[in-house]
Amino acid sequence: METVQKKIEDLVHHQEKDFEELITDTTFMQALEKNRYDLHFLENLVGKNYFLFHYHINGIGDKKLTFWNNHSVLPSVALLDSPGNAGFIQLPNGLYVWRKIQMSNELSIALMPVKWNYIVTNTYLENSFTADRDIGNEYGITVTPTNSPVKSLHGSVLF
User: Fold this and answer.
1) At what angle do helices 2-23 and 26-34 cross, to 10 degrees?
2) What is the pLDDT of residue 96?
3) Which of 15, 19, 77, 149 could lock 110 by a disulfide, CB 3.0 to 4.6 Å apart?
């Protein structure tokens, strides 16, 4: 059990670090805000193992999606409006850890897949853990406290 928890937590921490480094990179943020990207910039983002969404917030608080690196899923309205900067959420195609960073009128969100949970499965769509496809269905995820919590990079219990 602890080995599974550690694998998942290590993957989450790696992705959280990567997201934080990306969002604090001023060159990257300027490119996003000005909509100026080159092929290398886009290939780098498409190659991430998490999904990145960037929003512009107008004067009345409306959030407009201005950039995303994947079309598999979108953050829910509840997630966009939720307090805090990290958490766990179930979306239509799986279970995710999320991170949010807001700087002035710009909001960036990372959705880090933990387990795919498709309604219909086939050779290409399998319900599996992203940290290790061999973890298997004998393991589950719960938000009820257990002896093996998965914590965020900054120590909050995610699930």
Assistant:
1) 70
2) 96
3) 19
